[in-house]
Amino acid sequence: MDFLRPASWEEALAAKAEHPTAVPIAGGTDVMVEINFDHRRPEYLLDLNRIGDLYEWEVGEDSVRLGASVPYTKIMENLRAELPGLALASHTVASPQIRNRGGVGGNLGTASPAGDAHPALLAAGAEVEVASAARGTRLIPVDDFYTGVKRNALQPDELIRAVHIKKADGPQQYSKVGTRNAMVIAVCAFGLALHPETRTVRTGIGSAAPTPVRAKAAEEFLNAALEEGGFWDNGKIITPSVAKRFAELCSAACNPIDDVRGTASYRRHAVGVMARRTLTWTWESYRGTRRASEGAA
Amino acid sequence: MRVNFTVNGRPQEADDVWEGESLLYVLRERLGLPGSKNACEQGECGSCTVRLDGVPVCSCLVAAGQVEGRDVVTVEGLADYAKQRTEGGCATGACGTSLDAAQQWQAKGTDSQTGEGTELSPIQQAFIDAGAVQCGFCTPGLLVAADELLERNPNPTDADIREGLSGNLCRCTGYEKIMDAVRLAAARQGEAV
């Protein structure tokens, strides 16, 4: 095994171009487990710890450019206002020690259907910034990024530089099912974001299909129902039948398996419950801020 | 490969390190510092917790090559580390814990029951006084994590303590005595100020 230690992003891309089989390692919370257990013996390890750019984030007008290696701890501490869904998701990752090392770039690189960040990214709307020495930078919409179980849209010579995540324009929520609060791989997870500016709702489902997915039929149904009932303007409580139908459609968007963490039917059920709850939580929050702004006016 | 890094305030060099080796393995097998414990090797148990540039991490998940030029504190150096923190830095210019001292470090002192005669960090003394040590395997990781928690948050609520130690598993006891120990250390820290 060779240990490659690029000091800059350009050097890292050059190393990845020269050794396309090199396995990038940043927080190490996935890669080192595989090496410790002898599940993987990469020819090259490509250490990204020395590349300071990957640990920085920029808050722009409409989105946050989050460096691939920014640890979950920093997201929780610094980006709760801009990225509330991702901050909540980050807080559910493993333990403080793991959150100090792991980041969203690694979650995307591993592309496990159970990765905690994915539902929040899908719900908020995001693009993955990847780069190669030969072709430069490209942006991949997060919806197109997950291509299979632990597979993603990266080319062998590409590395993940950052994620561009839309800043929240409304309430966001994240929910995760596990046997305890800490150190849990999701049985299933659900992210929901209200986007009042476009009058749309977006969702993300984790660990209940071969890849993280959006519940698109559920989103379309809810968007139409909210529009038709004038909910965005009148701020009424969501009709229970609408919430119920939304939950059913979210369950239907799952394509889960039975495994050690849970059965397929439990996952479908739990995703429906989380969908209904996160919708209620976010909608109540939206109504609250509406009332507050009306009161001020 | 060779790895140069700082351990407990002193520069160290590890040779013949395999590229896929963990920091934990280097500490235990190359430098002879067995305080950081090896249990799950997958970041689940926290018994290998060390500070890497001040931040608590599972040393089993840090590749040895990633610590080149960086700063590691292990449980063997915790007493000195805590002392320096209290004194606001290193007055003599010769602080930290030498490899020899670290290899021989024990909490026993002249009285193995109370630890008297050894210089302990406040969190170590609190663990002894509260009876928070049973088999002792999880203790080093808990000490490093709890010490950092109190450094960051001198007056933690019970919820803060639970969350701060949520990455450290103890299989002997409930966690009640460990909670007691952290509360005790926090209270003593508050009195000292």
TrEMBL record, chain A:
Keywords: FAD, Flavoprotein, Oxidoreductase. Residues 1-170 form the FAD-binding PCMH-type domain. The keyword RNA-binding does not apply. SMART domains: CO_deh_flav_C. PANTHER family: XANTHINE DEHYDROGENASE SUBUNIT C-RELATED. This is FAD binding domain-containing protein.
Automatic annotation (TrEMBL), chain B:
Keywords: 2Fe-2S, Iron, Iron-sulfur, Metal-binding, Oxidoreductase. The keyword Protease does not apply. Residues 1-78 form the 2Fe-2S ferredoxin-type domain. This is (2Fe-2S)-binding protein. It comes from Streptomyces thermocoprophilus. The lineage of its organism: Bacteria, Bacillati, Actinomycetota, Actinomycetes, Kitasatosporales.
